[in-house]
Write a structure and sequence with these properties.
The chain is mainly α. Helices cover 65% and strands 6% of the residues. The chain has one domain. It starts with a helix and ends in an 8-residue tail after the last helix.
Length: 218
């Protein structure tokens, strides 16, 4: 799952607008940001099999980012960090943590069984990656629902919808690009790690631009 993760970020911004959008957008992919760094460092391992339906990723070893206990640790850590560093209200900080954890739930739907339920334990995954058309439809549908909720909330705040539409349009474009690329992403793990890390940081920057000028809320 790629852009489907951002549905949680947009829905969270609609539900709890006191946190900046970029914190939710970075939070939605925080686990994968950590994963990218650990792949580049050789701590977690990934390989590629272009013969697989849907995603070509073979996620061999990623206990420090994508196991269930690790996801909970990342979520709690993110909530505490934004609470301490940004002085967000506890409700907003908790929402950031929930968005971080939503990444694991989204991956559970699409990954093949490669998500550990505990460190070194049983691996799970519902494998929607093996059915590319329904999986891609799910991602686009989730993003559309999250975007609709966020857009409605911006309207309630009497804010322009154009930045939101542009941001969501860019995300949709990225998903369409991924859909038409045959065989998914292949290459060496370090190059892939750099590429996806850059993509996540760019998305965070675009979210900051889309949300700039947000009124302060108490």
């Amino acid at each position: 799952m790629f852009v489907g993760h951002y549905a949680a970020a947009l829905a969270a911004k609609g539900a709890e607008p006191r946190a900046p959008l970029w914190t939710y957008v970075i939070g939605a992919q925080l686990i994968d940001i950590g994963w990218s760094g650990l792949v580049m460092a050789g701590v977690e391992r990934v390989s590629f099999d272009p013969k697989l339906p849907g995603s070509a990723l073979v996620l061999e070893h990623m206990p420090w980012t994508h196991s269930l206990p690790a996801a909970l640790i990342w979520a709690v850590g993110a909530a505490l960090l934004v609470r301490w560093a940004m002085k967000l209200p506890w409700a907003a900080a908790g929402m950031v943590g929930l968005v971080v954890f939503s990444h694991w739930l989204g991956d559970l739907l699409v990954h093949r069984p490669d998500l550990e339920l505990w460190f070194g334990g049983q691996k799970v995954g519902f494998a929607l990656w093996n059915y590319p058309v329904p999986e891609q439809a799910l991602e686009m549908g989730l993003l559309a629902v999250g975007a609709a909720w966020w857009g409605w909330r911006r309207g309630q705040e009497r804010r322009s919808a154009w930045p939101a539409l542009v941001f969501v349009g860019l995300l949709m474009g990225l998903q369409i690009l991924a859909m038409v690329m045959p065989g998914g992403a292949v290459g060496d793990p370090v190059s892939m790690g750099r590429t996806v890390l850059l993509a996540y940081l760019v998305a965070g920057g675009l979210a900051w631009l889309a949300d700039r000028g947000a009124p302060r809320m108490t």
